[in-house]
Design goal:
The chain has 232 residues and is an alpha/beta fold. It has eight helices and ten strands. The protein binds adenosine-5'-diphosphate (2 copies). GO terms for molecular function: ATP binding; ATP hydrolysis activity; transmembrane transporter activity.
Length: 232
C-alpha cells in the first residue's frame, strides 16, 4: 500500500572523471497515510531523490511510482496531469505568482483544475499558518516566512494524496516552522494524506512517523518513533 516508491533508483550527473553519483541504487516505499522526513548531510542526494519522486527530474535508471503509476512511461502531458491531480509541492524554488494576492495564489491550483475550494479546510489551513490577515496581500508585500507559508497553504488546500516538501521550514522562524510541521502532521492524521519532506530541521523527527537518512547517495538508516533529541 505504497503512496509512492523508488526502486533501485540511480542518478548520475556528468561523465568520466567528473561523474557525480547523486543516488546509488536507492529503494524506498512511502506507505500511504504516513509522514516521512528525509534527512542527511548536504550533498547526500536528498533533493535529487525528492525531485525524481515528484517527477520534476528523471533518474538515470530505476523506477519511480506514484500509487500504482510508473512515472517512466508517462509523457509530459500525463505527468503534468498526475502532478495536478495527486501531488502537492512545498518547494522553496517554486515561486508564487507576483501579480496575484495570497488568497488567489493559494486557490490557483484548484482554480486551474476547475475544482471547488473546501472553505472550511482552507480557513483552517490559513488560520493555523497565521495568514488570516494577509490574504489580500501580494507576495511582494509579504515577508519571506509569509511567502513560504502561502506556498505551504497552496500545497495543502486541495488535499492532494501526497505532499512533497523540500525544506518546507527552511527560512522560517521557530514558531512558523512548528506551525508548518504540525499542519503537515494534521493532514496525515485527519485526511489520510501522505507527506514526504526533505529537511534539516531536527524537530521534524518528532512530527514524522519515520526518518530516512541518506549519506553519499544511499539510505544508511530508516527509523520510526524518533524524537528531535535523537537527531542531534
Ligand atoms: P542534498 O539535497 O542532499 O544536498 P543533492 O541531491 O542536491 O543533495 O545533490 C547530490 C549530489 O549531486 C551532490 O554531489 C551535488 O553536487 C550533485 N548534483 C546535484 N544536482 C546536480 C546537477 N544539476 N549537476 C551536477 N551535479 C549535481
Ligand atoms: P508544464 O511544462 O506543462 O507547464 P511544469 O513542469 O511546468 O508543466 O509544471 C506542472 C506542475 O508541476 C506545476 O503546476 C506544479 O504543480 C508542478 N511543478 C513544476 N515545477 C515545480 C517545482 N520546481 N516545484 C514544485 N512544483 C513544481
Amino acid at each position: 500500500n505504497a503512496a509512492a516508491s523508488a526502486t533501485k533508483l540511480v542518478k548520475t550527473y556528468g561523465k568520466g572523471e567528473t561523474t557525480v553519483h547523486a543516488l546509488r541504487s536507492v529503494s524506498v516505499d512511502f506507505t500511504a497515510g504516513e509522514f516521512t522526513a528525509i534527512m542527511g548531510p548536504s550533498g547526500s542526494g536528498k533533493s535529487t531523490l525528492m525531485h525524481c519522486l515528484a517527477g520534476l527530474d528523471t533518474a538515470t535508471s530505476g523506477e519511480v511510482r506514484i500509487g500504482d503509476i510508473d512515472l517512466t512511461g508517462l509523457n509530459d502531458k500525463q505527468m503534468t496531469k498526475l502532478r495536478r491531480d495527486r501531488i502537492g509541492f512545498v518547494f522553496q524554488a517554486f515561486n508564487l505568482v507576483p501579480t496575484l494576492t495570497a488568497r488567489e495564489n493559494i486557490t490557483l491550483p484548484l482554480d486551474i483544475a476547475g475544482r471547488k475550494v473546501d472553505k472550511q479546510w482552507m480557513d483552517m489551513v490559513v488560520d493555523r499558518l497565521g495568514l488570516g490577515d494577509r490574504l489580500g496581500h501580494r507576495p511582494s508585500e509579504l515577508s519571506g516566512g509569509q511567502v513560504q507559508r502561502v506556498a505551504c497553504a497552496r500545497a495543502l488546500v486541495g488535499r492532494p494524496q501526497i505532499i512533497f516538501g523540500d525544506e518546507p521550514t527552511g527560512n522560517l522562524d521557530s514558531r512558523s516552522s512548528g506551525e508548518v510541521l504540525s499542519i503537515l502532521r494534521r493532514s496525515v492524521d485527519e485526511f489520510d494524506q501522505t507527506v514526504v519532506i526533505v529537511t534539516h530541521d531536527p524537530r521534524a523527527a518528532s512530527y514524522a512517523d519515520r526518518v530516512v537518512f541518506l549519506a553519499d547517495g544511499q539510505i544508511v538508516s530508516d527509523q520510526r518513533g524518533l524524537s528531535g533529541d535523537d537527531i542531534f
